[in-house]
UniProtKB/TrEMBL annotation:
Pfam families: DUF1989 (PF09347). This is DUF1989 domain-containing protein. InterPro entries: DUF1989, UAAP1. It comes from Microbacterium allomyrinae. Residues 56-223 form the DUF1989 domain.
Length: 283
């Protein structure tokens, strides 16, 4: 059967009116995924709209999640200077392999995220690589916010409330992929940075300003979880966060001869581990 579903007898005329009313309210929301992705009003200038496989504007205090193919390039844009993308990546084939923030800063001998930085798992593989970065203000130390933190600072923490915590939003996204809160590792935070002082204290660096972006390259099939919430070290007393734009398109994973592949012996080993795993799994 094609066309509209029938409404039984005249008894459901109110349902027909309700359906007509609902359809009359069709509109484009300010925060939404765009389907098809080519319909995004914010297509990156160096990408053809038809190449896009994911396009979305994530609300302040919102989250998103998606499974992406190996070789997908994911661009995060901060249009206002107030976005803060708390990102977790998980091997979509074997979700027991996930982002390991400690190894991500330890193995490359670099605590501050930037272009060329691999996002490593605890299995010695590169799950993703930062391949472009115009912000340079990020954080691999603090992780995302918790309900206890938000209740103490803002007086609210529920996901549907005015000040949702990042950990709860990441858990909601993970649940849609069959994962539990215990499966979620600490997150990396993009667009709001901190630095470590000589005495070990964390100093707030904040945003690089409006209009910056970061691009991640998926080195394996990934579950990508993103919560767009204020950074835990943000000194502002109010819950301040701006929209986050997300676009993705098919590209190719890092391979020998690429700029970042052999930047250090440790990175080369991680990429070779990733390639060997992908070939063995037929990815």
């Amino acid at each position: 059967m094609t066309g509209e579903p029938p409404l039984a007898n005249g008894a459901l005329s109110s349902a027909s009116l309700a359906r007509s009313d609902a359809r009359s309210r069709t509109a484009t929301a300010e925060w939404m995924p765009y389907t098809p992705p080519s319909a995004s009003p914010f297509v990156p200038v160096d990408v053809e709209a038809g190449q896009l496989t994911w396009a979305e504007t994530v609300a302040p205090g919102g989250y998103t999640h998606l499974r992406v193919a190996r070789g997908t390039r994911i661009r995060l844009d901060d249009p206002t200077g107030d976005a803060c993308a708390h990102v977790v990546v998980i091997n979509a084939v074997e979700p027991g392999e996930r982002l390991n923030v400690a190894d991500t800063v330890k193995i490359p001998w670099q605590a501050y995220l930037g272009a060329g930085h691999p996002l490593l798992s605890g299995d010695g593989r590169a799950l993703a690589t930062i391949v472009a970065d115009t912000s340079a203000n990020h954080d691999a130390f603090c992780g995302t916010t918790t309900p206890a933190w938000n209740r103490a600072k803002y007086g609210h923490a529920l996901p549907e409330g005015p000040a949702p915590a990042g950990s709860d939003l990441l858990a909601l996204g993970a649940a849609k992929h069959g994962l539990e809160p215990r499966d979620i590792p600490p997150a990396l935070s993009f667009f709001q940075g901190v630095r470590v002082e000589a005495d070990g204290a964390l100093s707030w660096r904040g945003s690089a300003g409006a209009g910056t972006h970061v691009e991640l390259l998926a080195e394996l099939p990934l579950i990508v979880l993103i919560a767009n919430v204020p950074h835990a070290r943000d000194p502002r007393p109010d819950y301040v966060v701006g929209p986050l734009r997300v676009h993705a398109w098919r590209s190719v994973p890092t391979s020998p001869g690429d700029e970042w592949f052999a930047a250090t012996p440790e990175r080369e080993r991680a990429y070779r581990n990733t390639i060997a795993y992908a070939e063995l799994a037929g990815l």
